[in-house]
């Protein structure tokens, strides 16, 4: 080390020329640091140089909002930036910097770029990518950049076209606070410190709601249980940006949240002003691109009347109107070229656009007339079509005016969920909505490459709107992906995506709580030029793309009949009063109801899919040793099964989840899984096995993952068999039924139990083969204002299968695991109050072996959505009633033609006895919005529709005298009351 230190100056620069030799001062970002008071003697060459001490002058402001301490600091980090601020809340710190170009580029727009970045070092993690570096911006980073961009952009002065770049990065994160709002406030403070002209500061606040109480600056844990996530940005007296994700919050409650958010956000302003007074720079006089009055009036006189003629003709379509306006611009251009007006040619496009804006806005405010001739509160013509692509899991086409969106739904396994690498929030998500805006939707040519900020923002807005009505993950284990392809664009394609996505989810059979619809509300205002206050304004419902461009706001509001689920407000001027913003909520609600009516007329309940295309999901319980055998070395066996069948297999602790495209693929996968690791053996179950040896008294069969069973000679056929080898041979594959155990515990198998019995001479009936036990049908129907326990009770209500079916489906002997026995005991303890409890217990036993397929579970979800459709009384029936059309109701419906009109019976009711005109005594089983579900006895359910003016105050258990008046298309008895004489 001594030899290194003896070198006076390792660089090629002579020591006498260094700054510190002469004691020069170092200037850094207008803050001064001094060299040491004593310099090393030049004569003493052996003395090592001593590092100087730089003094960093820092400035900070501390304040408190929502019981959280917040600090703004500048001067320590990024001192060369035009403006830099570190904002800290708890242990989370965010750095925001701003810089501006120095040249005067010739352009007619503000090139503002906002970049937000979350690097993994902020939480002490090395990236898991191959290069161990952060790659392209993730979706969350793009969304946070948009969140910062939207409120700061309107405050730059008109005509300021210098390039500005805002960069926000997270320095440290404790996972408790979301850094997005912190980055927005830090960016505002950085702009205040810089010399860039800007009309800030702004304040950005987040509001949550837990158990009906609003929470200011909620933590991530509080947000996870909140039904509201509101991000609000404002100046001291005007609103700049609103972003909402909610679970059907009412317009009244949302307005209360906005009224609370504004004064809380204003608390951010004074600390920024004080910090700028201490450490801010003098704002520079930048050259603004302004249009001279003479040139503007000249172009206005040439273009105003032709433009008014185009806008007053409602017969123009989007492209016809655009072509006519472009022709006017070209005519003005030729006139200026003839006159040699170079200044007018440079500013022609911007000036013509300003004239268009003035013409449209003046006509809307003074006459109340819109470009396409609609009233201010009128929604464009609607067209809805669900299921237009039957091969897909779900699809829908939605058109509003000239805007058209095609939405498709794809269901996948839980392992298909998207993995997220953000610093805060969940690590994965199972519901994804991908929005695509191809160039052909506006008749343009363009390239498709990488993530687009606009597409990510619009897709996330629609995703948040639909997320509130999806069933919980515990009841709905699928991963869901919606693809929204914009086919034609003329305004509010993101809200059309919400409508189309809601219908596509219904078409795929997913039990949504409610339909979700959305539309965009616009504003046209007249401002006093002397004070800047709004003198007059008009609110526009369902704005066109042109009205969005020429108006003041684009207020996207999505929700159900019960409330709002998502909002995105973008403002073009430097703020809008909050009172006007709240006033826009009412016309948006009225327009949303109109759209919901059209959507519900097309599809109002989850659709029952075709077996050929509907996906299946099954969850099986196995030991971890068995699952290891299934996976195989390095997962080779699992991958082989997936490649051969096309299914997806997910393995977790003791659980195997299989997702297949259809039922036939599911059967193939289960067959392979059963052959490798088997399953819990039950009496009456059908298993495939291979004959391993043949004896005189029978054959030994290997089945169910290597287990051995005996196929006795007496169980080979219904006919006498003299030799076993005449029927089976070694290596033959058979489908066998487990019929029990012998005294030694050996498993007994039967081949004849799976074969149909031959006809006897004395019996003309044909016995049906015994079918294996069907899995339980999960019910995900959503009931309004009912607790989860009540929802399960209502969903499980309904008749059981016929007595014969129940007897055949209940095994005499069942070989169960200890886990299944524990679950059965719990079910028996919880459901011991009555008959309904016993039914639930028997179903719980089946559920412990295998969860039902998604398609079967979608039957019951019709009930919760059929209240508002007058022609949907059939959907009052529960899931089990829907299934009866495949069993006893087929017999009912086929005998209508031979029924007698005046039949009356008091004998126990069965499916074959009920005839048209038959009078029976029934009990009220369920009370629905439009009628009653009646218990006719003998596992038969019927329906009675309330008649106008008739009695409706029934109670469960009331006995009624009814008559069978007809049968529905599903074979369900439709009953009418018998009037007592």
UniProtKB/TrEMBL annotation:
Principal localisation: mitochondrion
Swiss-Prot/TrEMBL keywords: Exonuclease, Hydrolase, Nuclease, Nucleotidyltransferase, Repeat, RNA-binding, rRNA processing, Transferase, tRNA processing
Matching InterPro entries: ExoRNase_PH_dom1, ExoRNase_PH_dom2, ExoRNase_PH_dom2_sf, KH_dom_type_1, KH_dom_type_1_sf, NA-bd_OB-fold, PNPase, PNPase/RNase_PH_dom_sf
Gene Ontology molecular functions: 3'-5'-RNA exonuclease activity; polyribonucleotide nucleotidyltransferase activity; RNA binding
Subcellular location: Mitochondrion
Reaction catalysed by this enzyme: RNA(n+1) + phosphate = RNA(n) + a ribonucleoside 5'-diphosphate
E.C. number(s) listed in UniProt: 2.7.7.8
Bias (Polar residues): 799-808, 829-839
Keyword Transcription: no
Organism superkingdom: Eukaryota
GO biological process, one term: rRNA processing
Enzyme class: transferase
Biased composition (Low complexity): 849-861
Stretches for region Disordered: 788-861, 877-905
GO terms for cellular component: chloroplast stroma; cytosol; mitochondrion
Annotated ranges, domain S1 motif: 684-752
NCBIfam families: polynuc_phos, PRK11824.1
Assigned protein family: Belongs to the polyribonucleotide nucleotidyltransferase family.
Name of the protein described by the UniProt record: Polyribonucleotide nucleotidyltransferase 2, mitochondrial
Annotated source species: Nicotiana sylvestris (Wood tobacco)
Gene name, Swiss-Prot/TrEMBL: LOC104219255
């Amino acid at each position: 080390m001594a030899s290194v230190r003896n070198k006076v100056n390792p660089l090629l620069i002579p020591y006498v020329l260094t700054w510190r030799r002469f004691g020069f001062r170092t200037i850094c970002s207008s803050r001064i640091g001094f060299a040491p008071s004593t310099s090393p003697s030049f004569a003493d060459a052996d003395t090592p140089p001593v590092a100087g001490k730089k003094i960093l002058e820092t400035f900070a402001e501390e304040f408190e909002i929502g019981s959280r301490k917040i600090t703004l600091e500048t001067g320590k980090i990024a001192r060369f930036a035009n403006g830099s601020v570190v904002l800290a809340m708890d242990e989370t710190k965010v750095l925001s910097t701003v810089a501006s170009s120095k040249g005067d580029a010739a352009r007619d727009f503000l090139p503002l770029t906002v970049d937000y970045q979350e690097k993994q070092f902020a939480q002490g993690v090395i990236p898991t990518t191959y290069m161990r570096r952060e790659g392209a911006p993730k979706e969350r980073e793009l969304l946070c950049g948009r969140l910062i961009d939207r409120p700061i952009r309107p405050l730059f002065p008109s005509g300021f076209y210098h390039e500005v770049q805002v960069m926000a990065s997270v320095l440290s994160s404790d996972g408790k606070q979301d850094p997005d709002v912190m980055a927005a406030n830090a960016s505002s403070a950085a702009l205040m410190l810089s010399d860039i002209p800007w009309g800030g500061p702004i304040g950005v606040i987040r509001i949550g709601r837990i158990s009906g109480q609003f929470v200011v600056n909620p933590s991530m844990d509080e947000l996870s249980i909140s039904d509201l996530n509101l991000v609000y940005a404002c100046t001291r007296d005007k609103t700049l940006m609103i972003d909402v994700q909610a679970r059907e919050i009412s317009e009244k409650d949302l307005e209360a949240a906005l009224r609370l958010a504004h004064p809380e956000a204003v608390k951010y302003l004074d600390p920024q002003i004080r910090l700028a007074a201490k450490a801010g720079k003098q704002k520079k006089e930048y050259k603004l691109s302004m249009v001279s009055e003479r040139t503007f009036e000249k172009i206005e006189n040439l273009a105003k009347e032709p433009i008014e003629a185009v806008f007053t003709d409602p017969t123009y379509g989007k492209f016809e109107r655009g072509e006519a306006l472009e022709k006017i611009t070209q005519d003005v251009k030729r006139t200026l070229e003839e006159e040699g007006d170079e200044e007018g040619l440079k500013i022609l496009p911007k000036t013509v656009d300003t004239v268009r804006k003035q013409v449209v806005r003046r006509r809307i405010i003074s006459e109340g007339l819109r470009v396409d001739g609609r009233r201010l509160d009128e929604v464009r013509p609607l067209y809805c079509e669900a299921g237009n692509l039957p091969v897909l899991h779900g699809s829908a086409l939605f058109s509003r005016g000239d805007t058209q969106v095609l939405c498709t739904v794809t269901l996948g396994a839980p392992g298909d969920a998207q993995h997220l690498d953000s610093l805060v929030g969940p690590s994965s998500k199972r519901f994804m909505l991908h929005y695509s805006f191809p160039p052909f939707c506006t008749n343009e040519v363009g390239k498709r490459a990488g993530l687009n900020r606009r597409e990510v923002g619009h897709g996330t807005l629609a995703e948040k709107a639909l997320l509130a009505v999806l069933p919980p993950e515990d009841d709905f284990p699928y991963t869901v992906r919606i693809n929204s392809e914009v086919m034609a664009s003329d305004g509010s394609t993101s809200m059309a995506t919400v409508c189309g996505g809601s219908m596509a989810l219904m078409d795929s059979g997913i039990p949504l709580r409610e339909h979700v619809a959305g539309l965009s509300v616009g504003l046209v205002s007249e401002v006093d030029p002397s004070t800047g206050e709004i003198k007059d304004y008009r609110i526009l419902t369902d704005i066109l793309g042109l009205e969005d461009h020429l108006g003041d706001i684009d207020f996207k509001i999505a929700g159900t009949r019960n409330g709002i689920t998502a909002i995105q407000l973008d403002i073009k001027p430097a703020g809008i009063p909050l009172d006007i913003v709240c006033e826009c909520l009412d016309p948006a609600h009225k327009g949303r109801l109109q759209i919901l009516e059209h959507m519900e007329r097309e599809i109002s309940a989850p659709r029952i899919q075709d077996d050929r295309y509907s996906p299946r999901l099954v969850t099986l319980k196995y030991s971890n040793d068995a699952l290891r055998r299934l996976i195989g070395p390095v997962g080779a066996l699992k991958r082989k099964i997936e490649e051969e069948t096309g299914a997806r297999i997910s393995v977790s602790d003791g659980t195997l989840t299989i997702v297949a495209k259809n039922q036939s693929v599911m059967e193939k996968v289960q067959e392979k899984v059963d052959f490798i690791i088997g399953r819990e053996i039950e009496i009456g179950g059908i298993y495939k096995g291979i004959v391993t040896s043949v004896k005189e008294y029978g054959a030994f069969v290997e089945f169910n993952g290597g287990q051995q069973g005996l196929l006795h000679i007496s169980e080979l056929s219904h006919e006498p068999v003299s030799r076993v080898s005449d029927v089976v041979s070694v290596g033959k594959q058979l489908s066998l039924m487990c019929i029990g155990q012998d005294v030694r515990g050996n498993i007994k198998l039967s081949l004849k139990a799976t074969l149909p019995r031959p006809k006897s001479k004395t019996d003309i009936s044909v016995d049906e083969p015994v079918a294996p036990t069907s899995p339980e049908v999960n019910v995900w129907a959503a009931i309004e204002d009912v607790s989860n326990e009540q929802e399960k009770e209502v969903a499980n209500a309904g008749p059981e299968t016929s007595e014969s079916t129940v007897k055949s489906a209940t095994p005499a002997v069942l070989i169960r695991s200890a886990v299944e026995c524990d679950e059965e005991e719990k079910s028996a303890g919880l459901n011991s109050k009555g008959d309904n409890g016993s039914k639930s217990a028997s179903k719980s036993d089946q559920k412990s072996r295998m969860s039902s397929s998604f398609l079967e579970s979608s039957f019951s979800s019709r009930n919760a959505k059929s209240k508002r459709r007058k022609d949907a009384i059939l959907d009052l029936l529960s899931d089990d009633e829907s299934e009866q059309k495949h069993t006893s109701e087929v017999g009912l419906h086929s005998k209508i033609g031979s029924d007698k009109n005046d039949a009356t019976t008091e004998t126990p009711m069965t499916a074959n006895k009920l005839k048209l005109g038959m009078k029976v005594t029934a009990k009220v089983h369920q009370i629905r919005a439009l009628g009653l579900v009646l218990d006719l006895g003998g596992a038969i359910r019927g329906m009675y529709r309330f008649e106008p003016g008739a009695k409706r105050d029934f109670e469960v258990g009331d006995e009624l005298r009814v008559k069978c008046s007809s049968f529905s298309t599903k074979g369900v008895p439709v009953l009418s009351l018998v009037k007592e004489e």
